[in-house]
Amino acid sequence: MATNQNDNIDRVILGAFNSSGSLVGEILNIGGTVNGRDQTGAFELATALSSSNVQTFTSNGTWNKPSVGQWVQVILVGGGGGGQGGGRSPTGNTGGMVGGVGGGGGSVVFSSYLPIASLNTTEPVIVGSGGAGGAGVSTQNTVGVVGTAGGFSQFGTVPSTSSNNGSAGFGILLRASGSQGGGFGEYTGAAGGAGGTAAGTAAVTPTATSSYAAGGGGGGGAILNGRTATVGAAGGSAGTAVFTITGGSAGTSAGGAGGAGGSAGATSWRGGAGGGGGGSSTTSPQGGPGGAGGFPGGGGGGGGSRYGVSLNTGATGGKGGNGANGIVVVITW
Question: Are 231 and 219 in contact (CB under 8 A)?
Fold first, then answer.
């Protein structure tokens, strides 16, 4: 789905670095070194804009070149990864089971200024889907199912080549990787937090990688050696100290569910927060499910594990939380 609007605005976020790290265009940095990357403040256009055309895509679609305008900027957020499901420990009081690993956050790409004349009349847009959370398992002494990776978000096509002189033709290809980033991310998404371990290591809350990229999901709670349940970890936050997007809450040690990650919405042009990890359980039928990642691109929380005594027929680990879908925003002025 795409929305198209013409706004009278005086500022727009800008990341004026290409994939090789070179500075492209003039930027005004607020809160850091001038003409350098800033992880705490937003990049903004140095010159106020009198009007702009903004097309926002939350699903696959087609960008239509506006009839007016000189420059285009594209912001892409990849889909968040699904969290791993919780496992089930061995029977008896000695064996434990790790919690599920949280899903990674999607990467964020800010293009440089693109001359509108260099783009085709229409350009295809792909919006990365969030990955599905993995299932919890009921088989004793078995770890949970790994979640699905988030999909990449993409704008454009490979530039065409003129047949008469071999010169570059119209078009551009931009891509933001899904879950845990990759080579296409100007701001790589945070990796998901590790689940707790049977030896007593607590589930991990992911650390933010930048003020723009999506947060990773929190790890699920483990069953400790000696039949003890533990809490999950909170999801990784996103944003800045001024504009904080809070990660999902941690699940309790009674099989509590992890909370959903906070959403950045469709107009802040940054990634959402990660879902919280589910708590493990020795009493409830299932371990706690991981929380869903916040839109766009937040990773799902890991599922909590379940104690494996044979009398608990049907007991399973908690399902991993789903990752959030990505987004593509195209601004013309």
Answer: no
